[in-house]
Specification:
By secondary structure, the chain is of the alpha/beta class. It contains 6 helices and 13 strands. Helices cover 23% and strands 30% of the residues. The longest helix has 12 residues. The chain is globular and about 45 Å long. 42% of the residues are buried.
């Protein structure tokens, strides 16, 4: 069973429908016992880091998520929440990536913020990207990003390189929206759905 964490994230339904198109009926839940028993867990996310972390703390999910041992996939804000801290309203996050901090795109680079639309990813590493060619185009919508570091498994460029995907232990995460990224996004979701234990990162 694949579970989607229910904490009011804006892209929950689009993630559920993307999985349904792949033949997977995911369970939307905030029940700790259901999440612990799931074979895989997805942490979606669209919106503001402080509000998201407030909801996760109010429901006890902020304490639960770091203790999960099955494969977990963060999506968009779900990736940023894995870091130790977000610059968005000076927010303490889940600290699953303790050496990583989420930063905002600089306003003095002549870039439109948020970064919105299709962008290619390179430097692909790990089983999440099996069968996907470097230079694949994925759909992004975000104003904040995780810098490239030791957890980075894919890179995109917007005024400089940033982490398009990260992974540590049983946690993988992507900054783009696989549920809105056509065949390439579907392949990434299929790869995650094939994880039966913590993937070899």
């Amino acid at each position: 069973m694949t579970a989607i964490i229910d904490y009011g994230a804006g892209n929950t339904e689009s993630v559920r429908l993307a999985l349904e198109r792949l033949g997977v009926a995911a369970t939307l839940t905030a029940d700790p016992s259901v999440l612990r028993a799931a074979e895989r867990v997805i942490l979606p996310g669209v919106g503001e880091a402080r509000a998201a972390m407030t909801r996760l703390r109010e429901t006890g999910l902020a304490d639960l998520i770091p203790t999960l041992t099955q494969p977990v996939l963060g999506v968009c804000l779900g990736q940023q929440l894995l870091t130790a801290h977000s610059a968005e309203r000076d927010t303490a996050c889940l600290n699953i990536l303790p050496d990583a901090r989420t930063e905002r795109f600089a306003s003095d680079l002549g870039l439109k913020v948020p970064h919105l639309g299709w962008n290619k990813i390179t430097d692909l590493r790990g089983p999440l990207f099996e069968g996907l060619a470097a230079g694949a185009w994925l759909y992004f919508v975000h104003s904040y990003f995780v810098p490239v570091g030791g957890y980075t498994k894919a890179v995109a460029e917007y005024g400089g390189p940033f982490s398009a995907a990260v992974a540590v232990r049983n946690f993988s995460a992507v900054q783009f929206h696989p549920e809105k990224s056509g065949a390439a996004g579907a392949r990434i979701l299929q790869n995650f759905l094939a994880f039966t234990t913590s993937p070899d990162q």
